[in-house]
Each structure stands twice: as structure tokens, then as C-alpha cells.
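Two proteins follow. First one:
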Amino acid sequence: MNKIPVLVTSFIRPNFLQNVIGIIETRNDIDLFFATDGPRNSYDKVKINQCLNVLKQSKFKISNENTLIHNHNYGTKLGLIKNINWFFSKKKFGIILEDDCLPNNQFFDVLNEGLQKHAKSAKYMMISGTDFLPATINKSNSYFRESNFPMVWGWGSWADKWSLYQLRIPDIKVIVEKMASKLFGPQISRDKLFFMDTFRMRFTEVVRGKINTWDYSLMASAWRNDLVCLQTNYNMIINMGFGVDAAHTSGKKPDWVPTNYRNRPSQVRSNSVDSDVLTYEKWVAKNVYNCKLDEFLKTQIKRSLKL
């Protein structure tokens, strides 16, 4: 049996990790890899050891070859990048799960099938198992849709595509204008203006370190290389990482965050892909990335104050 390579990344949340490992333990076809950032203090050391005990008590006997434990704390951004670099130095493709992303059982089969089928495609950057579109909006019966927005709550990719990842974003103006024209057409419009303004600010905040995250750089890398993402048309991930234990999202869970799994419909066309999905893309831009008037006004205030 060819096992599915899966990287689980963790830090100081043993309860979260226990939930994710519990799901993975129900399967016999997972080649499990594990990576954790290094401690910042004595509290972190205790929690990291508790996470390692979760692994030791599981049915998986993970070898040193499949384990990465950093001695130094690299932080959420650089730590994740190092973990993913390490994983793809060992595997040509695979699935990545952070410890707060709880998958359903379909997740592994769907992503593995997509990774296998599209391995030689020059079109796709990655595959995501999270769908933010409400069922009332997403009426597709296709397996996947194409999307310009990489969703990293349970995702997979190929080593050659990950090699295109670039943390720096030196071409903000160029890639944002190119994507805005792709989604909204060549003419200026209110929605196109909101989109450009929001993403120019987000990418700039990443470059300046005001947003300590790595995934906006993944989006920029995809846009730069004219790649799109395969997005499942049904949600297979519940994100547990909101509240006091969150890495970034310590506030209230946004309304667009899925609270339930939505399994693949029985009538779905196997491995089919929707490519004409501008309505869905515009919904994501407006609702997930907040490309609308209130965010536009906030951005103008930030610029006036030079924040």
C-alpha cells in the first residue's frame, strides 16, 4: 500500500494535537511526519513535551527521520516555512495539517486523489480542504473549483510547486493589479478599487512584519507564477484555533468560518473541476478578505497616520 504523506505541525497545544492525531489514528494508510517549533521559555518546554507524549502514546511509531524538533524558536511564520521545507525535502507531494485543523475522514482521500491526479499539471499551486462558501451560495456539484485564494486550513501540494514559494513580496503593485483585472475586468470599479487597496495594504503589512504570517506570501507566490489553487466544493476542516490558544485569531470567530463539515455529495462528478467561478471568488474577496468599504476607509486612516 502506498501511504499518504501527512505533515502535522504543532507547538504548545497538546489537546489540539490529541484531537488531530485521534482522527489520523482511524486510518492505516498515513505516512505521518511531525514538526514542532522550539520553546521560548520553560512553560513552552513543558507543553512541547506533552505534545511529544501525545505522539508516543499514539499507534504511530514515528522515526527520527519523520520528526523535526527545533531547538530554537522561529515563530509562527519562519517556523512553519522551515517545517514545510523539511517535509517537501523528503516527499514529492503531501498534506499539511496544523494542530488546530481538525479534518473529517474524507479529507485524506479527497486531497490524496487530487494530488495524485494533478501531479503533472502546470496549473495548480496547491489543494485546499476548507470551503468558506456557505452551502446556500455554493451550488456546485463538481469535485473541485479553481480559486486564486490559497486556503491553508488543511491543504496539500507538491514539492516542485512549493519550491516557487517566496516569503518576500517585492512586486506588490504588479501582482495585485494583475489579479484585480483578472477578477473584475480591465475597467476600474468600486469593487476592483476595494480589492486593490485591501491587498496592497495586506501584502505591505506582511513585508513590514505587522502581520506575522506566512500564507499571504503563498498567495503572492501563486499570483506571481500565474497558478491557481484547487479548492474543494465542500468543507472538510473545522478550525479549533480561535480564542486564547490561537496563533493569530484570538478574537471572535468570523461569521464566514465553517462550524460544520459538509461531506461530498453522492452525485458529485468525480474529480471534476469548475473553472468559471468568478461569483465565488468575488464572495471570498468581499467576505473573507474584507474587500469592501469599511476596510477601505480603515486603510485610508492607516495611511494618513503612516501606520
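Second one, unrelated to the first:
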Amino acid sequence: MKKIILLSFTLLFLGGGCVSIEPIEQEVITVTEEASEEMLDEATTTEPTEEEVEHSIYVQFVVNVHDWVFPEESAETLDRLIDLHEEYQIPVEFHLTGATTQNYVDISPELMERLRTSEYVAVSYHVRPPHPMYSNFDTVGLRDMSANDRYETLFAFESHRLDMETGRYVDEPGGYQFLKDQLGYAPRIVGATNGRGGLEYSRVLEEMGALFTVLHEGGSNLEDKVHGLNKRPEDQEVKLYEFRVPDRFDPEEEFAEWTEGFDGSKDWFVNLKYHENNFYLGGTPFAPIYWEDWDGDRKEAFEPPYDLNASYDLVDFRSEAQQKGHWDLYTEALDYVDENLDWLTPINSVDLEGMLENIQ
């Protein structure tokens, strides 16, 4: 029990200029220990209401890396992109496939070191043909397996190297686990976890360390989940590589459009997307290898074994002017974000993981 004694005093003026101070008795208020703590809590820890929470606009530079057909050009492009992001001190997310990881380890270990150590780089994982989780490439019969067999098969694919000719895996390190081992941390974001087999595939990747999955649904929140993985938040997907070059796009006008849905009621996520081959190729590097209609809708997939040399005579390199135009466009986007940090916040998956920890 705490006692709070309130005293007041009366000044009495005596002869000779002397002053006497006499206390006047007041009511003594007693306060329990619990009540005292409650009074302190109410005075200092009032929680903000939902309306009072300040929300932000986040920008993510996302580069999908998948060109194993022209590995030298792919590696040179990533080196240049890292240079740019380190110069601007703006984070970036590179999504690597197993095949590109294998190439970098073999031909450019210094690039792997930069991917591993740059403070502005985070690396995630995705798949491309002939991985059986890629649409229309289930050549191993995942859909006809039991849930347990599907899990075991997908676990094997994500811990062994994918044979790009047969669509099967071989007895060498590969997949998500290989990238994780090279980086020294689990890639936070993955893809292709929806559809048939998505539940088992999500379980495999989550057990290996993945946190987020990419769905391109729009309007998703950080805490939304599918098959145990959090959805990577995305309110605006921007295929930045589809802008015509060397014509210039107006970043002020475009960012105004990309953020017009932000009303302050929730965080807003704008994802700016490129593929590394967009900077130097006029098409998808592996498309002629895996699709009959490679220059069309890509709905007619070849059957394995695949001709790994099919692309060299069919995929064209961009002209110098076109290549410069793509680099200029990408740099303009970096410029605009850098000049508008008062209302745009650039992030990558490291930041997303921190946000997730704060709401759990």
C-alpha cells in the first residue's frame, strides 16, 4: 500500500518581519500498488487506433534471373545491376533459378561473393522449365502421386540439380538447397507454390527456410498466407521492361499512377520488375528449347529430351541503342526513388522479414 499525503501551508506574518509557516492538515489518499501501476500505464502507454497508424508506400526492385543459355551475359548484367544499387544505396531482390546459380558458381565465383555479401542485395528463388512445378512441365507425374510421394519427389528436386535436357534431377547438389548453401541463408521468397502440388511444394520450401511466396494477386497483405507461406505483398506489379525504349517514360507520371490506390488505410507495395536478359536479349533465352510456339503464347511445350542448342539461332541480341535504352530506363527509376525518399521507401526481402517479425 502506498500513501500519498497532500500538505498545504499557511504563511503567518509576525511582528518584526518574522514569518511562520504552519501546515494545514489535508485528507490522506491511499493507493494500492496495482492501482498506482494502472494509473502510470494509462498515462504513458495509450495504444494508437487503427486510424492513427501511419502507413507507407514501399518500392521493391525485383530482378528475375533465369538465363542459363547465355551465362556470361547474365553474370555481367548482375554485376552491373549490383554496381547501380550500391551507388544509389537502394536495395534490390534477385530471384535466381537453380541453373543460373550453378553457372555463377562455375564461371563467376566473384559474383556469387557479391550476391552473398552486398548490403543492398537479397537473393530469392524461383523455377523455370523444365522444373515439374512450372506450368505444363509435369513430366514426372506429380498430379497422379499420393501427397506423400509428391512431397518426397519435390524435396528431391529442391535438393538435387535439375537436368535441363530431361527434366529429371541428377545426383548432384542443386535446387533451393544448393542456393541456400551458397548464400549462407535461406532465400526468403519463392514462387510456383500454388496449383496442383502447391501444398506439398510449399511444405518442402518452408521446411528449408522460405518465408514468402509470389502470387501476383494484388492487394495482398504481409500477414496473408497460402499453404503456410506468407504472400509477398504486392498492390501494383509493374513490368518495367515492357516500356518502349529508347523512348523515355515519365517516372513522375508513372509513379503517380502506380500509387493512386494508396489511401493511407494500409501499406502500399509497388514491385518494379525486370529480367536480367531484358537488358541484352529480344526474347526469353530458353523459350525455343521448351516450347513449340516459343514466339507466341507458349502453350505447346515440347516433350523431353529437349534440344539445348535450339536458342542460339533463334533468339536475337538487342542493338546497342536498345540496350542503352533499357539501362537508362532502369536508372531513371532508381533516380526517381532516390529523389523521393520522403514518400517512397525502397525495400527488399530483408525488410519484409523484419516487418513480418513486428506483426507476429
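SUMMARY FIELD: The CA atoms of residues 60 and 271 lie 5 Å apart. Confidence is low (pLDDT under 50) at residues 1-48.
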